[in-house]
Structures are given as C-alpha cells and as structure tokens.
C-alpha cells in the first residue's frame, strides 16, 4: 500500500485550546503508519470570515493563503477533521475553514475525531459535522474517534496518557485507509463529472 496524503484539519482558535493535542496525536499516528500528514490549523491559516469561496475567484486571483490551502486540499487523499463541541455543534472557525472550499474535497473520504472537556467526547458535534462533510463531497467513514476529557487525554505534544488511544486510533485509521485507497483507485479511472 502506497503512502497517503492526509490532511488533519483542526477546528479551534481559542486561546487555551486542548483539542490541538488530539490533532497532533493523529498527525503522529498517520506518520507512524507511513503516510504524509499535515496539520491544517485555522489559527495559523488566518482565513477571513467567508465572503467569497475559493472557486469564486478567477484562476490565479485568490489570496495566496487560500490558493496554498486549496492546493493542499486538492492533493490530499483523505481528511481527518478534529472538532470540539460548541453548543452541541461545531466550532465556527472550523465551519469557516471548511466552507471556503467545495470541489477541492470531492471524491475523497473524511474521518471525524471529536472531543470535549466532558464525558461525551463531542459526539453531538460529530453528527452535525457528518452531514456537513457529506454535503462538501467528502463523506465521513462510519467510525468516529471520540475523546472525552480531552484535557486529560494527551500531553502538549499529543502523546496519549492512555495507550488505549493508539489501539483505538489504529482501527479508526485502518478504516480511513481502506476508504482512501478505494477512492484513490476509483479517481484514477475518472470521476462521474
């Protein structure tokens, strides 16, 4: 199996954000499995509030940061979206980042890792995110990777405090790999339009 290009898209820009640890963990786990993984962090991307989608710019006229991010998305084989739960929904920074693009996601699978400070691990946000990702053309795999009490699950570098996370992530990533390889092979034969 050849290495995959995987984007780990994180969703929070809050000052004391804890979910970045889960995102770092997933990047490291993807790399350990032989893939190329890149963290997309809205705090670093600094996208403006959505006014114009990438596709609404004339070719070559999009702002440099938007152009660079579009290229990364187009080159990806799969996406892992790491989302907290804000008021039973997804963070606004994540929605803003995702909504800047559309066709760039098409024909590639996504996977949802969700988290919260409490016991439910962000699964309510994941259900809303599942519908959104499908609408964007990057349907999510059936499995989720919920992380309850995210503040206690990983250290600052993303190393798990409980090794069970590596086992759970292994199953989660194995499923994403299967879908990513299947869709990658199908894209080589052409897409519906």
Explain the layout of strands and helices.
Elements: E1 5-10, H1 20-32, E2 36-40, H2 42-45, H3 64-75, E3 78-84, H4 92-99, E4 110-115, H5 123-135, E5 140-147, H6 150-153, H7 164-188
Parallel strand pairs: 1-2, 1-3, 3-4, 4-5
In short:
With 193 residues, this protein is of the alpha/beta class. It has helices at 20-32, 42-45, 64-75, 92-99, 123-135, 150-153, 164-188; strands at residues 5-10, 36-40, 78-84, 110-115, 140-147.
Give the CATH topology.
Rossmann fold
Main beta sheet: 5 strands, parallel
What share of the residues lie within helices? 40-55%
How does the overall form come out from the CA principal axes? globular
**Assigned CATH superfamily:** Flavodoxin domain
N-to-C order of helices and strands: EHEHHEHEHEHH
Distance between the termini: 27 Å
Computed Rg: 16 Å
The largest beta-sheet arranges its strands as: 2-1-3-4-5
- By CATH reckoning, the class would read Alpha Beta
Per DSSP, what share of the residues sits in E-state strands of 2 or more residues?
15-25%
Q: Please tell me the CATH architecture by its name.
A: 3-Layer(aba) Sandwich
Strand pairing plus helix content: what structural class?
A: alpha/beta
Uncertain regions: pLDDT < 50 for 5+ in a row? none
Give the mean pLDDT: 96
Keywords: Oxidoreductase
GO molecular function, one term: oxidoreductase activity
Protein name: FMN-dependent NADPH-azoreductase
EC number: 1.7.-.-
């Amino acid at each position: 199996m050849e290495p995959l290009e995987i984007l780990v898209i994180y969703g929070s820009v809050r000052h004391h954000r804890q979910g970045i640890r889960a995102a770092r963990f997933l990047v490291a786990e993807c790399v350990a499995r032989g893939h190329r993984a890149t963290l997309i962090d809205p705090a670093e991307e600094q996208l403006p509030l959505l006014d114009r989608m990438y596709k609404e710019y004339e070719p070559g006229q999009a702002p440099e940061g938007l152009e660079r991010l579009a290229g990364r998305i187009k080159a990806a084989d799969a996406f892992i979206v790491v989302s907290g739960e804000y008021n039973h929904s997804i963070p606004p920074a994540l929605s803003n980042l995702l909504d800047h693009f559309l066709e760039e996601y098409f024909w590639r699978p996504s996977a949802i890792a969700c988290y919260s400070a409490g016991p439910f691990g962000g699964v309510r946000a994941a259900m809303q995110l599942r519908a959104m990702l499908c609408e964007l053309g990057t349907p999510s795999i059936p499995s989720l990777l919920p992380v309850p009490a995210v503040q206690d699950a990983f250290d600052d570098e993303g190393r798990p405090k409980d090794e069970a996370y590596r086992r759970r992530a292994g199953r989660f990533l194995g499923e994403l790999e299967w879908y990513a390889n299947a869709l990658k092979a199908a894209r080589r034969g052409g897409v519906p339009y």
